[in-house]
Amino acid sequence: MQYRNSRKGFTLIELLITIGLTTLLSTLVIAYSNASRQQTTLYIEGSKIAQTILRAKTLAISTYNQPVVPCGYGVEIDYSANEYALFSYDDGTPSCSMIQSPGAVIGAAEKTELNRFSLQRGFVFDQSPLDSLTNVLFLPPAPRTLISLDAQGNISASPGRIYITAPGSSSRVPVTVNVNGQVTF
Questions:
Q1: Residue 12 to residue 177: CA distance in whole angstroms
Q2: Contact residues for 106 (Cβ-Cβ < 8 A; gap 6+)
Q3: 3 φ, ψ to 5°?
C-alpha cells in the first residue's frame, strides 16, 4: 500500500509565523528608512548653510570690480525663527573703519538682507552650546573673517558653530566656521 501525502496547504501555525516574521522585518525596514531619511535631511540642511556661508565669502572676494563696495558680506542665524540670512554690511563710514577697529561689533542697523532661508519643517537650530555662532562676516578683498557668538554682535577670536537638530532625535550636525574663513560640516 502506498502512502500519499494529502496535505495541500500550510497549517495555521506556519501562516502565523510567516506573517509575524514578515511584519517584524517590514517594521524594521520602515523604521530604518525614516531614521536614515531624517539623517540625510539633517546633512542636506547643514550643507545648505555651509554653502550660504561660502557664498558670502565669495561675494566678499569678488568685490574688486564693483564701483561701490560694502564693508562685507555675511550670514546671520535667527535661532528663534529657525532661519538664516545672507546680508551685505556697511557701517556707514567710507572706509569701513568702525568694523575694522578693535572691539568692533557687528551691528544690526547696517545690514541689508540679500536672501533669507528657513530650515525644513521640524528641524531646528540648537543654540545651547557656548560656541553657537550668531553672525559671520567676511571683509573684502582678502577676506578677513569676523565671527560673533552672542546676540550683541561682539567679535570672537574663536571658531563658531551652527548646530542643527532633527525632530524627536538626539542627532545634530554642526557647521563650523573658524577665524580663517574655513567652513566645515
A1: 62
A2: 74, 89, 99, 135, 137, 146, 148, 153, 155
A3: -90, 130
160-165 sheet: strands from edge to edge: 124-126, 160-165, 172-177, 183-184
CATH pick for 13-184 out of 3.40.50.1700, 3.30.540.10, 3.40.50.720, 3.55.40.10: 3.55.40.10
Q: Which is it for strands 144-148 and 155-156: parallel, antiparallel or unpaired?
A: antiparallel
Q: Is the pLDDT of residue 9 over 80?
A: no
The torsion angle over the Cα atoms of residues 38, 42, 48 and 53, rounded to 10 degrees, is 170
Task: Please give the pLDDT value at position 109.
Answer: 62
DSSP letters for 25-83: HHHHHHHHHHHHHHHHHHHHHHHHHHHHHHHHHHHHHGGGG-SS--SEEEEEEETTTTE
Summarised one tens digit per residue, pLDDT across range 19-76 is: 999 888 888 777 666 678 888 889 999 999 999 999 999 999 988 777 878 889 999 9
Question: If you count them, how many residues does the chain have?
Answer: 185
